[in-house]
Design brief:
Layout: H1 8-18, E1 22-25, E2 37-39, H2 40-57, E3 64-68, H3 73-84, E4 88-92, H4 98-108, E5 112-115, H5 120-123, E6 130-133, H6 136-141, E7 159-165, E8 173-178, H7 179-192, E9 200-203, H8 210-213, H9 215-221, E10 225-228, H10 234-244, E11 248-251, H11 253-265, E12 277-280, H12 287-297, E13 300-306, E14 313-317, H13 328-335, E15 340-341, E16 346-349, E17 354-358, E18 365-366, H14 370-376, E19 382-390, E20 396-401, E21 405-408, E22 411-414, H15 415-423, E23 428-438, E24 442-451, H16 459-467, E25 478-481, H17 495-503
Parallel strand pairs: 1-10, 3-4, 3-5, 5-6, 9-10, 9-11, 11-12, 12-13, 24-25
Antiparallel strand pairs: 1-2, 7-8, 8-18, 13-14, 14-15, 16-17, 17-19, 19-20, 21-22, 23-24
This protein binds adenosine monophosphate.
């Protein structure tokens, strides 16, 4: 028998098996009215009301619903209920500028746009056929008096979400995730992390990023409670861990640095000792951070590696039984690798040292971009753009990046996009944007600029110029002026040379 693997399975099971349980605890402090504590039965009922509301708008299966929101229970509802009805959810990075969001809404062809009330003033200029602010307007869309029209032909290969990501091009690309991709990612992730109905998951990761890495589905399917955290703050994370008995969290290294900092000021025992497991990804965390998480917080450290294009789970590094008696330093060293392939994933290294992947979590393609899809999937392997090695035990280590992408605080920045904006300033003759290692952000966006003859502008003006059209995290934190930039004989800027002096003390070329 073949039953299509669709995201609907997760919420259906939560309702059937764990209906009376509190499923989601919404953020209390937010501009929309908080939903408070919601049972899985109520989450499912609200999900159906949302689907019936979209029916009433005439927005059917296959159509796109874009949502720009900080973490919120209503965003979780959209992720759980919109794809389950055959429609496509497009969760958008809330840090993007109005222009960037406009591009994504237009490119995805979204007929519905939902906007967080806090973001509304900045995104007022982005329009869609049906546009609503999350809160009262969202509640008015819900139709509790009608049964939703069932998805006529559930199909595991249908697109469930489109997640826009900054790659090496100036424009973000829409990663097309099928139901099958999300299903396999959620189930494999849950299996490797041994998620159970006893888990309490705190959303320390932005839910737009790879659909909260797919964990909203895992947690729903197994009846685990999900606690919404709207904004990352180290001390607040510790308070929520204590208050809700949190057992699992995930995020980029910057999140755990903030927690470690807050822990230094924390009065009494750190909550969650020997109970919490954290999953880290986005950049290779230094072994020192790993050792500190385990020693100072008493939380189990896990690492995964993957991309928006791979749902994201490709490899996982969980402390295995053999590590139990290792010295903390040695244990941290083992855990600093990206990990071994998750069940069903194959990893290979190309001749040029690029990490390649095959598996059921790999994207179907980029939305309306066959050229980019063909390139990424050439030869039947997904090309990650990351440089790495595999050791004897099958452990992958990411050592550098082949693609022109900077990862700062867990978010991707396309160097070319920032270069384009700087270049549009009349005083700029040449520019190269690179990532340089930074303790707080992992990598810091840095611009090396050659001014046109006779021009005189300072760092502040160029930064302000970038701020006018780029999301805040993409704006260079540092601008250095140079007389010339290293070039090859054919005139191509040699970024690796420009990076050299900044990375001289680092073992790897990524941070
Ligand atoms: P994104 O698509 O925004 O999730 O970014 C994916 C990129 O993050 C990958 O291509 C890697 O460059 C980087 N990345 C993710 N996880 C890790 C990890 N564990 N170690 C090193 N780099 C990572």
């Amino acid at each position: 028998m073949r039953v299509p693997l669709t995201t609907r399975d997760f919420l259906d099971r939560a309702e059937l098996v764990y209906g009376d349980r509190i499923g989601i605890v919404d953020e209390p402090a937010q501009p929309a009215p908080s939903l408070g504590e919601v049972t899985w039965r109520e989450v499912a009922r609200r999900g159906r009301a949302l689907q019936a509301g979209l029916d009433a708008l005439g927005v059917g299966a296959g159509e796109r619903i874009a949502v720009v929101s900080h973490n919120a229970a209503r965003l979780l509802e959209v992720l759980l209920a919109v794809p389950s009805s055959g429609r496509v959810a497009v969760p958008v990075n809330f840090r993007l500028s109005q222009e960037e969001v406009r591009y994504i809404v237009g490119h995805s062809g979204a007929r519905v746009l939902m906007v967080d009330p806090e973001l509304e003033p900045a995104l007022g200029g982005v329009s869609a056929e049906h546009r609503l602010v999350i809160g009262e307007e969202y509640e008015q869309l819900l139709r509790f008096d009608a049964e939703p029209v069932p998805w006529a032909e559930p199909d595991e290969d249908a697109t469930a979400t489109i997640n826009y990501t900054s790659g090496t091009t100036a424009r973000p690309k829409g990663v097309q995730m099928t139901h099958r991709n999300l299903w396999v990612n959620a189930v494999t992730f849950g299996m490797h992390m041994q998620v159970s109905d006893r888990d309490v998951y705190l959303h320390t990761l932005p839910m737009f990023h790879c659909n909260g890495w797919g964990l909203p589905y895992t947690m729903a399917g197994l009846g685990a409670r999900q606690i919404v955290l709207r904004k990352v703050d180290g001390a607040e994370i510790l308070r929520r861990v204590e208050q809700h008995g949190v057992t699992m969290m995930s995020g980029a290294p910057a999140v755990w640095n903030a927690v470690l900092e807050a822990a230094e000021q924390w009065d009494g025992e750190i909550p969650g000792r020997d109970r919490v497991r954290v999953v880290v990804a986005g950049a290779p965390p230094p072994s020192r951070t790993i050792a500190r998480i385990e020693a100072e917080l008493g939380w189990e450290f896990n690492q995964i590696y993957g991309l928006t294009e791979t749902a994201p789970l490709l490899t996982i590094n969980r402390p295995r039984a053999e590590y139990d008696d290792l010295e903390p330093e040695e244990r941290a060293k083992r855990l600093s690798r990206a990990g071994v392939p998750a069940l069903g994933t194959r990893i290979a290294i190309s001749e040029s040292g690029e990490v390649l992947a095959q598996g059921n979590t790999v994207l179907a393609g980029y939305w309306e971009n066959p050229d980019a899809s063909g390139e990424a999937l050439e030869g039947g392997w997904f090309h990650t753009g990351d440089g790495g090695t595999v050791d004897d035990g099958g452990y992958v280590t990411i050592s550098d990046r082949k693609k022109d992408v900077i990862i700062t605080g867990g978010e991707n920045v396309s160097s070319i996009e920032v270069e384009d904006v700087l270049f549009s300033h009349p005083a700029v003759a040449e520019v190269a944007v690179i990532g340089v290692p930074d303790d707080k952000w992992g990598e810091m966006v840095t611009a090396l600029v050659v001014l046109a003859e006779g021009e005189e502008v300072g760092e502040a003006e160029l930064v302000a110029h970038c701020r006018a059209s780029l999301a805040g995290y993409k704006v260079p934190k540092r601008v250095e002026f140079r007389d010339e930039l290293a070039r090859t004989a054919t005139g191509k800027i040699q970024k690796f040379k420009l990076r050299e002096s900044f990375w001289a003390d680092s073992e790897r070329q990524v941070n």
